[in-house]
């Protein structure tokens, strides 16, 4: 018969020997086992000192479970706090921000929302119609350099994209408090932005909006003074298709110095653009210009030498101008831009692709060209009987 070791059966933790203590380990969930409890008791008997309070054993009595249960009062207070922080659709601002980053916004345009950075502030406001004075709900979201305007679909709990404004291109001011109907209102305007009036829930919230927008607007203007933070320095010269597409979006969302007329967004979608050199046909010297072709107008812009700012130089209606080829002269990619109410301009392109596109888009048939007169032949007179 083989040899085996037999240990006596224990009836409680006081009867556990040192061999059993070595075999018992701490449970995976972090609870103390029987052996560890016995170890602490034996230490107490040897040192006659009060041991520190150990965690409860695995098998807890009903009274111990009730004593160790979490206090229901903090849970209730936490729920009440969350309810008080609800802003929209039974969600807090933090939950709404997570929803914006995680869920797609209906009718969204442009780059991904997370590309605009962290959300500085947001709240539910009312937008006043400039004609009917009717107030409708909107949700404003302030990023570091942009202000996002969202409409609401309360039936599906969805945000609807209405526009995103660069802070460097807008101004904010308080609406006069003399009219009781204009309480807690502020106005956003700019040379390239339609004026919008928003109404806040309180004067304190309006103050938060104005201070945050002004602060971020100043930082946005200062940051654009650095070439490393200017998108133009990366997009110009626009010698690749992806650069042209990004530059189109940039011009529709960024400030243009000395802008005149209706906002650029009202001109439609740009069809083509490129950097050219323009000179007066009667004078010497040429100037670099950015030509942007819209459905009804040709927009002329200038860019500073450091590629930081775009400035408005004028616009020409497409129906009154045309391009005449001049590329045969000295082998240059040139065409003459003429019109009835303008002085002729000589436009020089850098790339053949640009030249071909401008000629195709702006060339019109000569209105002075005479066409042959297709009159019907004369009728042969009928013969008379004699």
SSE blueprint:
Blueprint: H1 18-23, H2 34-47, H3 62-68, H4 72-84, E1 86-88, E2 91-92, H5 93-102, E3 121-128, E4 135-142, E5 146-153, E6 158-166, E7 171-174, E8 185-190, E9 193-199, H6 203-224, H7 232-235, H8 241-253, E10 272-280, E11 287-293, E12 297-303, E13 310-317, E14 321-325, E15 334-339, E16 345-348, H9 352-362
Antiparallel strand pairs: 1-2, 3-4, 3-9, 4-5, 5-6, 7-8, 8-9, 10-11, 10-16, 11-12, 12-13, 14-15, 15-16
Q: What report would you give on this structure?
A:
- A hairpin with a 5-residue loop joins strand 15 and strand 16 (345-348).
- The longest helix has 22 residues, at 203-224.
- It is built from 9 helices and 16 strands.
- It folds into 3 domains: 9-51, no CATH class; 85-224, Pleckstrin-homology domain (PH domain)/Phosphotyrosine-binding domain (PTB) (PH-domain like), CATH 2.30.29.30; 232-362, Roll (PH-domain like).
- The protein is an alpha+beta fold and 386 residues long.
- It is elongated.
- The strands form 3 sheets. A 7-stranded antiparallel beta sheet has the order 6-5-4-3-9-8-7, covered by helices on one side.
């Amino acid at each position: 018969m083989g040899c085996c070791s037999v240990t006596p059966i224990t009836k409680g933790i006081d009867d556990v020997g040192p061999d059993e203590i070595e075999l018992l380990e701490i449970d995976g969930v972090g609870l103390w086992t029987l052996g560890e409890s016995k170890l602490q008791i034996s230490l107490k008997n040897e040192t006659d000192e009060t041991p520190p309070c150990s965690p409860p054993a695995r098998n807890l009595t009903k009274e111990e479970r009730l004593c160790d249960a979490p206090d229901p009062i903090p849970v209730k207070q936490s729920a009440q706090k969350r309810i008080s922080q609800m802003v929209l659709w039974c969600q807090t601002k933090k939950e709404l921000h997570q929803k914006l980053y995680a869920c797609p916004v209906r009718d969204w345009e442009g780059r991904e929302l997370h590309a605009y950075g962290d959300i500085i502030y947001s709240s539910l406001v009312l937008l006043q119609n400039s004609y009917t004075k009717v107030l409708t709900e909107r949700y404003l979201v302030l990023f570091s350099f942009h202000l996002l305007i969202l409409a609401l679909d309360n039936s599906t709990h969805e945000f609807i994209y209405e526009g995103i404004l660069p802070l460097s291109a807008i101004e904010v001011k308080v609406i006069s408090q003399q009219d009781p109907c204009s309480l807690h209102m502020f106005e956003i305007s700019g040379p390239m932005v339609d004026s919008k009036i928003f109404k806040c829930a309180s004067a304190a919230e309006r103050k938060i909006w104005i201070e945050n927008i002004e602060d971020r607007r100043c930082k946005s203007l200062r940051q654009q003074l650095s070439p490393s933070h200017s998108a133009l320095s990366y997009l110009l010269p626009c010698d690749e298709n992806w650069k042209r597409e990004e530059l189109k979006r940039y011009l529709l969302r960024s400030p243009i110095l000395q802008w005149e007329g209706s906002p650029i967004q009202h001109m439609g979608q740009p069809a083509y653009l490129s950097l050219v050199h323009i000179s007066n046909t009667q004078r010497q010297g040429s100037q670099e210009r950015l030509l942007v072709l819209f459905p009804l107008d040709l927009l002329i812009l200038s860019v500073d030498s450091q590629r930081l700012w775009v400035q408005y130089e004028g616009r020409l209606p497409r129906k009154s101008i045309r391009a005449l080829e001049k590329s045969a002269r000295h082998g240059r990619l040139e065409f003459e831009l003429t019109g009835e109410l303008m002085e002729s301009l000589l436009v020089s392109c850098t790339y053949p692709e640009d030249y071909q596109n401008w000629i195709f888009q702006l060339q019109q048939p000569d209105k002075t060209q005479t066409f042959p007169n297709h009159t019907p032949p004369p009728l042969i007179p009928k013969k008379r009987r004699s």
